[in-house]
């Protein structure tokens, strides 16, 4: 993992939130027990206690509020348990609630003979405290349902009695707490395997799992509470998880601005963007580059649109071709509104074959490369060779990535992490697959999953703003993957701010660009 991540998370500012796969979590669980000697049953007791805390403090609040009205909320709980350790957590939660005086019913969906060892132990203890374990859902009304059917061990679609139990839970008018993950959500992808519980709260143990963040999983979790049960980063044993996301603020990761810097210090950004029909893309991209900290921005675009660009963005310079400005630039961004014209192709060829500066490829730059097999092969060969390799970022949306890959877009949507990693490796580049949860992949295998942003960003020009931000950051941040992660995160925060003022329905991509400065000011203030 990037050193920057580790120093940032060790500095007292919690910048990085790890996102684990089922395999990574299982390894961390077993390292904690087998290497560090913390017994599984101790971890399980802490896991159960953390869920009980959530239930009891919610109940207390309810009872206080209801008490003022002379009402007495009931405490009827159903534990729905599966045959593995998620079910064992559920039984432990039920036993602790019994001890707290709650009225608890237990439903064990799998037969006791198939139960995991820890589940057998929990059943034994719960029964000793008077628990009655039922093999069908006990009739009755419930105020609280604990979903402990499956956690990270879900390995096939929920069917039969499990589907019935999930559908029954979803039909109840009760507060639903999911243990570790809503049952039916695949840990690594967030996919719904068959059907899934819709929870009000998900209490997840130790670390976030990827499926809690990805769509559609995140629509099933309700509020996610990640509790500490004794499984810490020590359990990684120097094998850090592949994926992470940011928690605000990230100001300490932004490039420092030397007090005695000049406009050259902060990056000379050359943008190959805009065409007769898409001048706005160049303007959005250039404006965002300025707001993200660039010292100078030059736009290479057809002469015909220079006046409109100069009017909208007088701070920027314009050029007829990249050739004259190639030496001047510290960094190049290509693609927004570029079109697939012969001029665009010629300009892009020049950039790819005659320059070595760090480069961001987006939109039509990617489409032009995808159309030209010889050019694509040449780019791959250049990037595979350390002597000719440049710092490179690609920011395709799934459609553009599908064109590069030569497959259907559905294929990319099914496995976005796989394809982002594949192209990061093939091009030795930082590659983004854009979407509601954009995924950035680094050639070293690290994955960033973005959680800032909102559906108001699904609007024309939003990607042009991102290219401007990322290109600006690449001029002063050494590691392209890092520049990409920070840029994507800030872009989403700008989208959130734009949504706050204009609303998701009405915001435009220019509102996102116009929010970039305010996001950076906020980041600085939070950090001080
Ligand atoms: N130290 C630790 O280890 C700690 C672990 N903790 C907890 O353990 C959980 C992981 O436990 P786990 O590995 O036992 O997996 P789990 O989620 O219970 O699922 C496996 C069971 O489900 C079954 N099954 C799967 N899919 C199915 C389907 N579609 N339809 C039907 N059955 C299906 C599968 O059956 P099988 O495939 O064997 O037939 C098996 O019985 C984790 O999420 C956390 O809650 C915490 O207490 C913290 C400490
Ligand atoms: N539902 C959403 N939630 C969060 N971000 C989104 C959502 N939909 C789109 N975005 C973001 O908006 C941007 C759209 O980029 P892109 O598809 O290239 O648009 P355009 O080509 O119109 O500029 C991406 O950064 C994407 O991650
Ligand atoms: K569960």
Automatic annotation (TrEMBL):
Its EC number is 4.2.1.136, 5.1.99.6. K(+) binds at residues 86, 147, 183. Keywords: ATP-binding, Isomerase, Lyase, Metal-binding, Multifunctional enzyme, NAD, NADP, Nucleotide-binding, Potassium. Residues 246-523 form the YjeF C-terminal domain. (6S)-NADPHX binds at residues 85-89, 151-157, 162, 180, 281, 337, 397, 464. The keyword Hydrolase does not apply. It catalyses: (6R)-NADHX = (6S)-NADHX; (6S)-NADPHX + ADP = AMP + phosphate + NADPH + H(+); (6S)-NADHX + ADP = AMP + phosphate + NADH + H(+); (6R)-NADPHX = (6S)-NADPHX. One of its GO terms (molecular function) is ADP-dependent NAD(P)H-hydrate dehydratase activity. The keyword NAD applies. Catalyzes the epimerization of the S- and R-forms of NAD(P)HX, a damaged form of NAD(P)H that is a result of enzymatic or heat-dependent hydration. This is a prerequisite for the S-specific NAD(P)H-hydrate dehydratase to allow the repair of both epimers of NAD(P)HX. Bifunctional enzyme that catalyzes the epimerization of the S- and R-forms of NAD(P)HX and the dehydration of the S-form of NAD(P)HX at the expense of ADP, which is converted to AMP. This allows the repair of both epimers of NAD(P)HX, a damaged form of NAD(P)H that is a result of enzymatic or heat-dependent hydration. Homotetramer. This is Bifunctional NAD(P)H-hydrate repair enzyme. It comes from Gallintestinimicrobium propionicum. The lineage of its organism: Bacteria, Bacillati, Bacillota, Clostridia, Lachnospirales. The gene is nnrD.
